[in-house]
Structure formats: C-alpha cells, structure tokens
Design brief:
This protein is an alpha+beta fold and 321 residues long. The chain has helices at residues 3-13, 21-28, 32-44, 68-74, 93-102, 149-166, 230-234, 240-256, 263-269; strands spanning 48-52, 56-61, 83-90, 109-116, 134-140, 172-174, 178-181, 184-196, 201-211, 277-282, 285-294, 300-303, 309-312, 317-319. A hairpin with a 2-residue loop joins strand 7 and strand 8. The model has no long low-confidence stretch (mean pLDDT 94). The structure holds biotin. Biotin binds next to helix 5, strand 5, strand 8 and strand 9.
Length: 321
C-alpha cells in the first residue's frame, strides 16, 4: 500500500478525530515529511482534510477516494466473497483480471483502476479511460449454459441501470450493453471469457464496466457527438464506491435469478432500442428492420417490412430513427 493509502486508511479509521503528523508517522513507520506529502496528495485528489496546529489532521470528507477494505466491508452481506484490487493506473482492468483468473483467482475478484492506458471496448475498439471515470472488472465462474452468456451481459447492463437509478440517475439501455443518457453513451460493458472444452462450460467470465462520471477536457473530437458523462448531464457528482457496491450487489442478484429472467423486464422497460428501426449485419449483409422485442437470452428480435422476424445475437444494432 502507498503511504497515501495508509494515511487515508488511518484517517478513515479515526472517524473525524484528529491525528498528529508525529503519531501518523510513528504508526505508519515513515517520516513526518512523508505524511505531509501524502496529506497534500490526498487533498489534491479531492479529500477535505482539516489541519489544526497542535492537534493534527482530521478527515472531513473523503470525496471520491476509497479503499478496497471499505468496499469489502460494505459487501460482507453479499452471497459472493469479494476481493477488491485497486490500482491508480492499468492498461486494462480486464487484462489484469485475466491474469489473476488464469492464476486461479476465485469468483468475486474485482479489479478497479483510476484510469486505463489501453482500455478495451467491444469489437476490437478502444475505450477512452481518463481519470474521473469508473473502470471495473469482476470475475465470475458461472455454472450456466453457454447459451446464457449473452443474458449475463444483459444482466450487467440491467445491474448498472439499477445502481444508477438508486443514485437518482435515469439512464437507458442500448442493446446489447451500453448505457445512455439523453441520447449519448455514458457506459460500456465488455465481457471476455475462457471456455473449458473438456467440461463444455465457461472456465471464467470477466465483465468489464466503464462509466464516464466527469467531463474529460481531452475527449477525442470524434467522440464528442456520441459520448457524455454523468456530471455534465445530471449535475450529480457520484462517488465510485457507491456505484461499485450497487453494481456488484445488483449483478449477483440478477445472475442468481437468471433462470427466472428477472433482468428481462428491467432490460425491456428501459431500452432505447425497442420501437426503433435498427441497422445491423445479418450473414454479412447490412439490413434495416424494426426492433420489437428481446428473446429470453437477450437476443434482439427485429421485424422486417414483410412481417417476418429474426433474432440478432451478435454485433451491434444501430437505431436510425
Ligand atoms: C464498449 O463500450 O465497447 C465496451 C467498453 C468496456 C470498457 C470497460 S472499462 C473496464 C474494463 N476494462 C477494459 O479494458 N474495458 C472494460
């Protein structure tokens, strides 16, 4: 743990009581200068810390900062035993979690990064991941048929929808698993996994979720018309800890209830795809049809002009009206 995190942990545990620089330095086994530097870094990260001569430091508000142990504590009543790993920077949380999964990490292992240098999107695209967003990957080892894998990602979109709704944000789900606010994307989800050919089931599934929380002054020009963030669109400054806990709890519940498809009404009622004509690829041909419903496995059912229907299960469907 970095000195900054150790200082934050000590201040959080003190629950507003003052801790002197000398006491902190002694407890953490570092110099008072190192403590002072850590306090300055925490302030720069948005923490409100009061410093009073002869008393020391008191944490008034941790802002968006959190520690893995705090999250684990808030998740102790969950069915899954969560192990949270938090990094200031990673190439991709999915990549890091893949390494942990291959080394045998249990279901419920979570990797969070403050920013990603090579965030991955669906279909080989990149996912712009500056500081100020939420980047999370969670490891599942689901005992579900392969045919349910698409529904698992739809459960994830529904879980993000519910976690945002708990925090007062009304988003919409674009098939398969993007979340939108006022017609612009705020969240993308990328699922990756390894198939066990001997047991004919998934060995593991990694679900990566990226949410734009605050405006990015360096947002690439080409993304500006299609991407937004929660602060800009709602004026709400969310704390990642609340969002992460909410997503993980809703996700495990929706996946546990997958056999009874409780995610489906949430997914349907908050879809911004249904009722629109969509463009999609079918057997290599570009087609347009009306999106009318979802199948039980979250496949998108479209209706052609002649009344025939087909279910799309791969690629994207872009609404055109
Ligand atoms: C998409 O919109 O195409 C999917 C984007 C998924 C982004 C998340 S951020 C956390 C996790 N790590 C990654 O590299 N990608 C996912």
């Amino acid at each position: 743990m970095q000195t900054k995190d150790k200082v934050l942990q000590a201040l959080l545990q003190a629950e507003g009581r003052y801790l002197s620089g000398a006491a902190l330095a002694k407890e953490l086994g570092c110099s008072r200068t190192a403590v002072w530097k850590a306090i300055e870094q925490l302030k720069a990260d948005g923490c409100e810390i009061e410093a009073v001569t002869n008393r020391g430091y008191s944490l008034q508000n941790a802002g968006d900062l959190f520690l893995p142990v705090q999250l684990e504590k808030r998740l102790t009543n969950a069915r899954t035993s969560y192990q949270i790993h938090h990094f200031p920077e990673l190439d991709s949380t999915n990549n890091r979690l893949k390494e942990l999964a291959a080394a045998g990490a249990p279901a419920g292992t979570v990797v969070i990064a403050d920013r990603q240098t090579a965030g991955k999107g669906r279909l080989g695209k990149s996912f712009h991941s500056p500081a100020g967003g939420m980047y999370l990957s969670v490891l599942l080892r689901p005992d579900l048929p392969l045919t349910d894998m698409m529904a698992v990602t739809a459960c994830t979109a529904s879980a993000v929808y519910l976690a945002l709704a708990d925090l007062g944000i009304q988003s919409q789900i674009k098939w398969v698993n993007d979340l939108f606010l006022n017609g612009k994307k705020i969240c993308g989800i990328l699922s990756e996994g390894a198939f066990n050919a001997e047991l004919l089931k998934m060995d593991y599934l990694i679900i990566g979720i990226g949410i734009n929380l605050t405006p990015d002054p360096n947002l690439p020009e080409e993304l500006r018309p299609i991407v937004t963030d929660i602060l800009t669109d709602t004026g709400l400054r969310l704390h990642r800890a609340d969002l992460i806990v909410g997503i993980l709890l809703h996700l495990e519940q929706l996946i546990a209830e997958l056999p009874s498809r409780t995610y489906l009404p949430i997914y349907k009622q908050n879809s911004c795809t249904l009722g629109h004509h969509v463009q999609f690829l079918s057997n290599g041909t570009q087609k347009t049809a009306l999106a009318v419903d979802f199948a039980d496995d979250a496949g998108l059912i479209v209706e052609h002009d002649d009344g025939t229907r087909e279910t799309i299960r791969t690629g994207t469907a872009t609404p055109i009206d």
